Amino acid sequence: MGIVPGNNRNRICIHGGRVIDPANAIDALQDVYLADGRIVSLGNRPDGFETDQEIDAGNCIVCPGLIDLGVRVREPGQEHKASIATESLAAASGGVTTLCCPPDTDPVTDTPAVAELVRLRAETAGKTRIVPLGALTRGLAGEQLSEMAALARAGCAGVSNAMRPLVNTLVQRRALEYASTFDLTVFLHANDHALANKGCAHEGRVAARLGLPGIPEAAETAAVARDLALIEQTGVRAHFCRLTTGRAARMVARAQFDGAPITADVAVPYLFLSEVDISDFDSRCHVIPPLRTVEDRQRLREALQNGVFSALCSDHQPHEPDAKLGPFPSTEPGISGLDTLLPLGLRLVNEHALDLDELIHRLTCGPAGILGLPYGTLSIGATADICIFNPELNWQLDTHSMRSNGHNTPFMGWEMQGRVTHTLLNGELVYSLD
Amino acid sequence: MNNQGLQIDDRGRLRHFLSISGLNRQLLTEILDTAESFAGLTEQTVKKVPLLRGKTIVNLFFEASTRTRTTFELAAKRLSADVLNINITQSSAVKGETLLDTLRNLEAMHVDMFVVRHADSGAAHFIAGKVAPHVSVINAGDGRHSHPTQAMLDMFTIRRVKGPDFGRLRVAIVGDILHSRVARSQIHALNLLNTGEVRIVAPRTLMPAHAEALGAQIYHDLRTGIRDVDVVIMLRLQRERMQGALLPSEHEYYELFGLTEKKLAHASPDVTVMHPGPINRGVEMDSEVADGPRSVILEQVTHGIAVRMAVMSMAMSRRKDRDE
């Protein structure tokens, strides 16, 4: 195999692809050389580089491995829905090399032990990297602070209370202050639980007709306003997860303009679906926060394009089939999205909602910056996480092509254009299409 | 699967009765005409017809109800069907059986029709999408979404009192529109029958956001809302609305939205007053009005049987053709 001891192991040449690396403003036809799990060269073959493996990327795009900020792997606690092993495979086949998981596992990720368990299981599965978020409060109960410093040491990229409420704004203020002590980013799901009032659909025209309990736009905007005030008060670095309304996007844009240390993301389903899609009580479109109006969908697309949202994520929530079998309000919310993150992202490009390099930015260095991790780039010396996809390959999303354990998606049956052909994690090939 | 696809078969006949939305004017008229023929029957001494002899109908009630369940039961019995009443609030749901399991078990007993009431909007649609092809589903109320037989008995009552031309009528629905499946179905039915003007009257806390999507004129003042109307339909006010900060008190609600003889003077002189029952006297309506000459509240109950007979027999006659 020609391995020089201590150096130059697993030398790979990715040949003939169009390399797009927004972190370095690269978009060029060139070869990529990897060794020892790192990027060693773009374009020029390093002196004495002997190839252990050559990957043909002709007609393909070569970009950094994708980073998904919103993935529930359901482990520990809900292994009947999915597991780290199953969802790691789905991630690898979707070109995703880093997943960020919220702390609402069972048990909650509020101790280093749970965080380490998640990371180690992912390492054992060996298909993708999982970065957990630690709980902001103990048991996510919203009352007492979690041991955030210990969680950070255990590899949590930030802290979050997931979708659970804090008992009051005093607890929130102190949690933000404590997190900022350790320079931790706080991941916020902006939702005023009292206003949401156990609703299951956007409080709009469709919910009015269907008689579904509504969640008003203000459940999100009131929470964003409160959060922005506390961010300003505490100076904490914060990230708004999965915003769903045009108004909230505008509030965040304004605060960013004023210099607030905030970022935000949006999830794929909210860019394609709207309240209209629940008209037939389609439980596959039951998501929380709910699908908003057609106009909100347009505003969200614009915010993704102009960078107010610097990350696009899947908000992956795999379920067992029974979870969606029932009257709409009784079904469990969430869409299985890992399989469709990149192909639906490419559809946005085809629909001229954003450019290809902008899309790849929102899937690589954008989220990497939010996490403060050195991934999402093809810089020389960077970890060799790479996604190779053929943007012209047509395929259909069906139960055979889906790799996630959860088949709960309203995009089932859709024609997709663009498919991942190879995924490399730490310089190792973890997925190839054939 | 849209409402129409689920409710109407490829020959345009009623397969399930889930919501007024998705039906057409012709079908509504057919229901009313069929109910008219049964209404004559219920006034005779022998009240039974053998139309559904040998058929099994299950009243599947996941939510408590006396009036609706009783009239469905009577309607089925007058059509000579066998009726089974199942109150799920006290049975399987408690043991953790899923709705679908309950349904499959009952289906295994060769049931021909389910009459379903459930607290979730969309429950009847869900069930209709899952039953065997020969089974019909009648919605007896799902969450805040739909209560189509109630709406049809109200249309039947209006047609009997005011005649068949809905185009010259102004109708006001007053009360808790937000939580009312009855109101949503009535508005759809009134619009399908080309009613001249449909109004809804409520304080903003009891009006859905984007109520304009329902297809009615919105009013927040009772006097202007019922001015010159030919029919006033009052809705029941659930007492728990005071807890949810939707209303300050029954007293203030009665002051502003309770129907009294004095307020009724703003309506057309020959106004008809309706209520789906049961009435909270002194909250949404004065006894003087409820028991007065313009009230047809008890007629509504009687008509409920004929209308439910009509819907059940229509959904089943489709099946009879198929069997032949």
Largest interface by residue count? A-B, 24 and 28 residues
Low-confidence residue ranges of chain B: none
Provide the domain count of chain B.
2
Query: How much β-strand is present in the residues of chain B?
Result: 5-15%
Give the overall shape of chain A, derived from the CA principal axes. Answer: globular
Q: The CATH topology of the largest domain in chain B is what?
A: Rossmann fold
Number of helices of chain A: 13
From the N-terminal CA to the C-terminal CA of chain B, the straight-line distance is 28 Å
Q: How many helices of chain B?
A: 13
Rg of chain B, Cα atoms, Å: 19 Å
| Quaternary structure annotation | heterodimer
Main sheet specs of chain A: 6 strands, mixed
Shape of chain B: globular
What is the CATH architecture descriptor of the largest domain in chain A? Alpha-Beta Barrel
Tell me the radius of gyration of chain A: 21 Å
- The count of domains of chain A is 2
CATH superfamily of the largest domain in chain A: Metal-dependent hydrolases
CATH class of the largest domain in chain A: Alpha Beta
Q: Write down the overall mean pLDDT of chain B.
A: 92
Helix content of chain A: 25-40%
Mean pLDDT of chain A: 96
Outline the fold blueprint.
The complex is a heterodimer of chains A (434) and B (324).
Chain A (H helix, E strand, L loop, with lengths): L11 E4 L2 E4 L4 E4 L2 E4 L2 E5 L10 E4 L4 E4 L1 E3 L15 H10 L2 E6 L10 H14 L3 E4 L1 E2 L12 H6 L5 E2 L8 H13 L4 E3 L4 H4 L4 E2 L2 H6 L3 E2 L2 H17 L3 E3 L5 H12 L4 E6 L1 H4 L21 H12 L5 E3 L27 H10 L5 H8 L1 H7 L14 E11 L18 E11 L2 E5 L2
Parallel strand pairs in A: 1-6, 2-7, 8-9, 9-10, 11-12, 12-13, 13-16, 14-15, 16-17, 17-18
Antiparallel strand pairs in A: 1-4, 2-3, 4-5, 7-19, 19-20, 20-21
Helix pairs in contact in A: 1-2, 4-7, 7-8, 8-10
Chain B lengths: L2 H5 L17 H18 L13 E6 L5 H12 L3 E6 L4 H4 L3 H9 L5 E6 L4 H6 L7 E7 L5 H15 L7 E5 L6 H12 L4 E5 L15 E3 L2 H4 L5 E4 L15 H8 L3 H4 L7 E3 L12 H4 L6 H27 L1
Parallel strand pairs in B: 1-2, 1-3, 3-4, 5-6, 5-8, 6-7, 8-9
